[in-house]
Specification:
- With 112 residues, this protein is mostly beta strands.
- The protein has no helices and nine strands.
- It has strands spanning 5-6, 9-10, 12-19, 25-32, 39-46, 50-55, 74-79, 84-91, 98-103.
- It starts with a strand and ends in a 9-residue tail after the last strand.
Length: 112
């Protein structure tokens, strides 16, 4: 997750979840790192027929979990119902604004 600010916009990353089901989706985020065991954040919710953006630099969005800036990680998002997930990075370190986004791919359930 980048740090910095340009044009009044803080650098940040977000996980955008779309839940088209008629019931709330219960979510778990598992952050995986190169040099330590994963961190698990559960109890997150995306409402029924809603979109929710989880800013990864805002601990209150992640149940109090603080993701360290400038630390390489991968993210596994699990849900008890079908969802769509998009990851977005806004990078303002170079004095401008760069936006990168990607859609997640579905995996079959496995044990970490």
């Amino acid at each position: 997750m980048p740090t910095g600010s340009s044009a009044g916009i803080d650098a940040h990353e977000a996980v955008c979840v779309v839940n088209l089901a008629t019931h709330d989706a219960q979510l778990t985020f598992t952050f995986l790192f190169e040099d330590r065991e994963p961190d698990v954040v559960d109890g997150l919710i995306c409402g029924a027929r809603r979109s929710r953006h989880f800013r990864l630099d805002w601990p209150h969005e992640l149940g109090g979990y603080r993701l360290a800036a400038e630390t390489p990680y991968s993210l596994l998002v699990e849900s008890d119902s079908p969802i769509s997930v998009q990851h977005t990075r806004v990078d303002t370190r170079a004095g401008g604004i760069a936006l990168m986004t990607t859609m997640a791919g579905a995996l079959h359930r496995m044990t970490l």
